[in-house]
């Protein structure tokens, strides 16, 4: 599973970092994904973060 964040959509709310700090972090008021390929143990948390993002900026493939 791959993850990335659409920086044009992200409003910097920080929710994804709270939900899954292993994968997401804040940088210059936007969230970034620290990895492209999600480790198996973090997949559920990444899916949760995707569902929670208020602007659907988290793209999972
Ligand atoms: S939850 Fe969405 S809008 Fe909020 S920081 Fe993460 S990617 Fe950006």
Structural key phrases:
2 helices, alpha+beta, binds iron/sulfur cluster, 61 residues, Alpha-Beta Plaits, two-stranded antiparallel sheet
Structure, described:
With 61 residues, the chain is of the alpha+beta class. It has a single domain (3-60), classed as 2-Layer Sandwich (Alpha-Beta Plaits), CATH 3.30.70.20. 25% of the residues lie in helices and 23% in strands. The chain has 2 helices and 4 strands; from the N terminus they run E-H-E-E-H-E. It has a two-stranded antiparallel sheet. The model has no long low-confidence stretch (mean pLDDT 98). The structure holds iron/sulfur cluster.
Quaternary organization: single chain
Q: Strand portion, in percent? A: 15-25%
> Which structural class matches the secondary elements?
alpha+beta
CATH fold naming: Alpha-Beta Plaits
Number of strands: 4
Instruction: Characterize the overall form.
Output: globular
Are there runs of 5+ residues with pLDDT below 50, and where? none
Topology as H/E string? EHEEHE
SS field, number of helical segments = 2
How many domains is the backbone divided into?
1
The first-level CATH class name: Alpha Beta
Mean pLDDT: 98
Strand arrangement within the widest β-sheet reads 1-4
């Amino acid at each position: 599973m791959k993850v990335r964040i659409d920086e044009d959509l992200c409003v910097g709310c920080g929710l994804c970092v709270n939900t899954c700090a292993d994968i997401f972090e804040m940088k210059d008021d936007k969230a970034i994904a620290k990895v492209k390929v999600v480790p198996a143990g973090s997949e559920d948390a990444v899916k949760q973060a995707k569902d929670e993002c208020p602007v659907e900026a988290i793209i999972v493939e």
